[in-house]
Automatic annotation (TrEMBL):
It holds the Pfam family APS_kinase. GO terms for molecular function: kinase activity. It catalyses: adenosine 5'-phosphosulfate + ATP = 3'-phosphoadenylyl sulfate + ADP + H(+). It is an enzyme of class 2 (transferase). It comes from Pseudoalteromonas gelatinilytica. Keywords: ATP-binding, Kinase, Nucleotide-binding, Phosphoprotein, Transferase. Residues 25-174 form the APS kinase domain. The keyword Membrane does not apply. The active site is at residue 106. This is Adenylyl-sulfate kinase.
Length: 199
């Protein structure tokens, strides 16, 4: 019931927070298959931003599922709830003035669109970590594809559960064709061109 709840405007404005931080707040929304490189690239980009003096926060897949979203499964319904909560938390961190990164498969386009819709214009940057399934499977950093192929993990993304390919991501990273360093440069380059960072 939300009928007796009233939104409060805050005393410290977004513009003041932005000025204080020295960069614009933004959400880098990484999406891609398991093993595509979301976590690796998001961590490397965050490290670079940190080195440049930016204020950052990273919400990463497995860690969030061990805490905030503990108990959620990989059913369609639970993945939707997983992404809904993550979007709302990310929005709070962006409101605090940070450069926020989220590294989740986020396989359904409707959920990514909803996350975009709750952010201010220009603050949602979809980063598609585009790695062919065969490459993810050959990397198999956690041995999960092997288990999924053996029928031990139901609803595994790319094998027995859908992944909606992003149609117009702001940043399209092809990890089978470029190194981690090149991907970091691509993303930092985007943030400079978009005026998020000026350093
Ligand atoms: N069934 C199934 N399908 C896909 N992935 C699975 C599954 N079961 C466990 N895992 C592990 O959980 C990580 C994905 O969690 P996410 O929260 O990012 O998924 S989702 O956005 O809710 O779809 C994913 O981590 P990443 O490899 O970092 O993507 C897997 O390690
Ligand atoms: N060009 C590349 N870009 C990103 N990751 C790569 C690349 N080449 C190899 N890898 C490896 O692929 C794996 C990706 O795993 P991870 O970052 O956990 O993916 P995800 O978070 O999408 O599940 C890591 O072991 C990483 O070192």
């Amino acid at each position: 019931m939300t009928e007796n709840i009233v939104w409060h405007d805050q005393t410290v404005s977004r513009a003041e927070k932005e000025q204080h931080k020295g960069h614009k707040p933004v959400l880098l929304w990484y999406t891609g298959l398991s093993g595509s490189g979301k976590s690796t690239i998001a961590n490397a980009v965050e490290a670079k931003l940190f080195e440049l003096g930016c204020h950052t926060y990273l919400l990463d897949g497995d860690n969030v599922r061990m805490g905030l979203n503990k108990g959620l499964t990989f059913s369609e319904e639970d993945r939707i709830e997983n992404i809904r909560r993550i979007s709302e938390v990310a929005k709070l961190f962006v409101d605090a003035g940070l450069i926020v990164s989220t590294a989740f498969i986020s396989p359904f386009k409707e959920d990514r669109a909803r996350a975009r819709s709750i952010m201010h214009q220009g603050e949602f940057v979809e980063v598609f970590i585009d790695t062919p399934l065969e490459v993810c499977e050959s990397r198999d950093p956690k041995g999960l594809y092997k288990k999924a192929r053996a029928g031990e993990i139901p609803n595994f993304t790319g094998i027995s559960s859908a992944f909606d390919v992003p149609e117009q991501p702001e940043i399209h990273v092809k990890t089978a064709e470029q190194s981690i360093e090149q991907s970091v440069e691509q993303i930092i380059g985007y943030l400079r061109e978009a005026g998020v960072i000026e350093i």
